[in-house]
Amino acid sequence: MNIVKPSIPKGTRDFTPTEMMRRNYIFDTIRTVFHRHAYLPIETPSMENLSILMGKYGEEGDRLLFKILNSGDFTKGVDFNDSEKSVNKLATELCEKGLRYDLTVPFARFVVQHQNELTFPFKRYQMQPVWRADRPQKGRYREFYQCDVDIIGSNALLNEAELIEITDEIFTQFGIRVTIKVNNRKILSGIAEMIGAPEKMVDFCTAMDKLDKIGRDGVCAEMVERGISAEAITKLDAIFKMTHMDTTAKLDTLSTLLAGSETGLQGIREVREMLAYAQAMELHNNIELDITLARGLNYYTGAIFEVKADEVAMGSISGGGRYDNLTGIFGLKNMSGVGISYGAERIYDVLNELNLFPDNILNPVKALFINFGGEDELYALKALRALRKADIAAEIYPDKAKIGKQMTYANNKGIPFVIMAGENERNNNTLTIKDMGSGTQEALSIEKVLERLTSC
Description:
The protein is α+β, with helices and mostly antiparallel strands. The chain folds into two domains: 17-195 and 236-353, Bira Bifunctional Protein, Domain 2 (BirA Bifunctional Protein, domain 2, 2-Layer Sandwich); 363-455, Anticodon-binding domain (Rossmann fold, 3-Layer(aba) Sandwich), CATH 3.40.50. The protein contains 18 helices and 16 strands. It has helices spanning 17-36, 50-53, 58-64, 87-94, 104-113, 158-174, 185-194, 201-208, 211-225, 230-234, 237-240, 247-257, 262-280, 344-353, 374-389, 403-413, 423-428, 446-455; strands at 40-41, 47-49, 67-69, 95-99, 122-131, 143-152, 178-184, 286-289, 303-309, 318-323, 337-343, 367-370, 394-396, 417-420, 431-435, 441-444. The strands form three sheets. The chain has an eight-stranded mixed beta sheet with strand order 1-5-6-11-10-9-7-8. Strand 12 (367-370), helix 15 (374-389) and strand 13 (394-396) form a beta-alpha-beta unit. The two termini are 54 Å apart. 34% of the residues are buried.
């Protein structure tokens, strides 16, 4: 019999207890900020109908969707000999469902289906895994968690500013210095008009969004491949030269360059208003207008955001934007929304690299009771219940083993205190508590033990 060596799919991971405690610290911190700003939780299924997902993320997004084969005889009625049939067309015949690519499109579907149950503007957060058939690399996985926060049913730019404030609060609590980059799709539309290629808006944004990865020459080369003329690309020189200006200078220069584009000027006005709100909020982190920021997703229509850690070389750890037409695709028009997503995996990597995880999250168990068996075991269980009622995480070794073995268990788990409840303690109605760090121990009443463990 051949024994199959266990493994997991590429781009996925197991998480040890230590990793999970750190991840839960991330989720709990983010969730606390969401609650403080009055956002409510929802969840949606891991899989969605492909008709919901396809065409919402652009050509690249469609390619990265994980599709699920239909159950039963999934090949029935499918013509594999049709040479005119594209791979995507064949996939839709074999697969009716797919794993969700992000949380925003499922959220739009949720809003349309539950519109009569919701109060608008509706403020929601969602913290669940998503899947992308991407090439795994540092900070990029095929299965990863997103922590999304959105408000839908309001056009007010105060919502954008609130998302910036939430972002600032989250990363300030983590101790991560970040730069919050902002732009507006209307400005990009104005630039596309300025260079004479308004019909190439999607291609233009897709190429511009890769500036950090492939550089200016690479972006220009991709634009040529996407059918944008050399003459149009030459007109972008003025845009590329603005990258080192401060935000005020960029907006003033753009106002001149895009004077002939009402859409572009509207985008500039929106950015000015959004930044005025943000300035009044006295944020801790820098906000930077990045004119080349495009965000690849097709559904963004207004403000767009991207967050990068200042002290770690990594891609964006958060991103989002305004979407005006997403629910309209599902039949609910005039329902504008704006949201931002925080990547738990990348935040984890940044916290780990900067050594910013608090030490106390790794030792949630404060005390271990030594198990002496018999009546002593029952006495220890009574004391253990008292600790747990006081919200102190504690456990008892399950077997009556040698004390050395039980002590080793406590050391290996990093448990700071060991409590002995043997015959002497039982007769004197006390507990002996040992500090595993200093090695000191003393006999105390249960009340004093509770007092000591609560204070440390």
